[in-house]
Amino acid sequence: MSKIWLFLSSLFFYSWWNPKYFPLILLSLFVNFFIGTYLGKEKPIWQRKLMLTIGIVFNVGLLGFFKYYDFLINNINLVFSTDFNLLYLVLPLAISFYTFQQIGYLVDSYRQETKGYVFLDYALFVYFFPQLIAGPIVHHKDVMDQFRDPFNRRVNAKHIAVGLLVFSIGLFKKVVIADAFAVWVNSGYSMAASLTFIDAWMTSLSYTFQLYFDFSGYSDMAIGAGLLFNIHLPKNFNSPYKALNIQDFWRRWHITLSTFLTRYIYIPLGGNRKGAVRTYVNILIIFAISGIWHGAGWTFVLWGLLHGIASVINRFWTRAGFSMNKVLAWFITFQFVNATWVFFRAPNFTTAIQVLKGMAGLNGVSIPDQLANILHWETTRLYTFSLAASALEVLLYLAGALCIVLVFKNSYEWKEQFKPKWYYAVFAAALFIYSAFHLQKVTEFLYFNF
Fold first, then answer.
1. Which one of 294, 307, 376, 438 is the catalytic residue?
2. DSSP character string of 226-287
3. pTM for the full model?
4. Which of 302, 373, 376, 391 has its CA 20 to 30 Å from the CA of residue 93?
5. Annotated catalytic, 294?
């Protein structure tokens, strides 16, 4: 009964946003479970291959129609001077995430690795509400046994305590830190053509930290909420801005997406088993897929390819036996990530180039008058900092965010090192209450768009 209630609650949670997509999510659920069950049976190999193909085409077709139809038609109209109508489809919530989860399930069913699963456990695996909306992308082995474990139907005081702590950390990341940066990011990108050196860098760095605290905050909230039901969701972030190279970054950022792409695309393509050239091609393929998965736009594709090229260069560098000072390695990695996030955030190439030109100083270098007054500089080229009421405020937020991501323990370390102490309760309560007072100005989670 507890699992039925949890499943119905998850469906209600999903449907509350847009009830018209409720039939779609049920269709996806039943079709994938039926195909997965068929693939798990002893059938002729050609029948199982055909059914797997049907299942993958079904899932990719749904995702492609809702997410990429307008993008495809727009490009066809542009290239061939046609005038096909756009549908202006609203992307069904979480379709990118539950599509990948179910494709992984079908592939593992084909490999005979999913036998014995019942419908209710499968339904919870796909639509467990803490992780449904924006991940982490859960593998069936991560949670299915937990749903079947009768001990997880009992109240666990430690899990509740840890869950509330991690949830409160995630909530604070989102509504206090990420949403503060969102104001300056939106302001900066809305006037990208006029950004000069300092405010362009503040704009780009603000988005770098907004995205991190927004998405990692959601992942923390998902993990924390899962623990309230005695379900351990997989780690999705591990201090990615501490990375010393781009491969290290992708081992730490959106870990479950990297795991999916490696397991179901990179390795089947041959991984690194077919020579250096083929390895580099495979790397570029998975990063191009990562880019287009994040958004239906050429800026996302370029973002993915830039990370793919950087990964190829890093692998070549490592194989050649070169090394680099750790501080310099961190600085180069962080600045590359920061610069490429510009393409991730910008609505088009024109805006992205404008921001990057500002960062390069090609639009001039001006000192905000607020900073000039503090530094007692006299210059005839002062301007009013337009991203916020105070340039100093943005600088303090950036310095604080950098300190948090480089010095403080991440939420997973808090979770693993947790001991029931009174000060943990006070800390969690303080974060939660303070965050609650900021809920009236919350923006949507960025990964809801993907």
1. 294
2. HHHTT--PPP--S-GGG-SSHHHHHHHSSHHHHHHHIIIIITTTTTTSS-HHHHHHHHHHHH
3. 0.90
4. 302
5. yes
